[in-house]
Amino acid sequence: MKTISKRNLTNAVLLTSGLMLGAHTLAADMSQAKSAGWVCEQVNGYARVAKPNAPADVQAMVSSVNSQRKAEYQRIAQKNGVAADQVARLTAQKVIGAAPQFRCK
Q: How far, in Å, CA of 7 to CA of 26, rounded?
């Protein structure tokens, strides 16, 4: 399996990190949901609803963000000739490293 070069990885992570939070309004909502403990980040590059009683709008937001992430991971993977899950995991490492308190337990 091909690996992403350090330069390509840095570029991919920077691009994807912006997507990790979605649009500007969605970013604020996602940040609030994380701070409230409703949402956490998984090591596989996707967000997860952390509490089963999370409001429906939080669940919908996580689903939307994850769909956007998946599309972006696939785009970056295809461009670099690697697997999408590799891009997702590497991005997760960067995002969780910047905010470890939001990692899923």
A: 28
Using DSSP bridges, classify how beta strands 47-49 and 39-41 pair: parallel, antiparallel or unpaired: antiparallel
Identify which has the larger pLDDT, 100 or 22.
Answer: 100
Enumerate the domain spans of the chain: 23-102
What proportion of the chain, given as a percentage, has pLDDT over 90?
65
Q: Between 3 and 29, whose confidence is greater?
A: 29
59 CB-side CA count, 13 A: 6
Q: Side-chain half-sphere of 62: how many Cα atoms within 13 Å? A: 22
The pairs formed by 82-87 with CB atoms below 8 angstroms and a separation of 24 or more are: 82/1, 82/2, 82/3, 82/4, 83/1, 85/44, 85/45, 86/1, 86/3, 86/4, 87/4, 87/12, 87/16, 87/45
In total, the chain counts a number of residues equal to 105
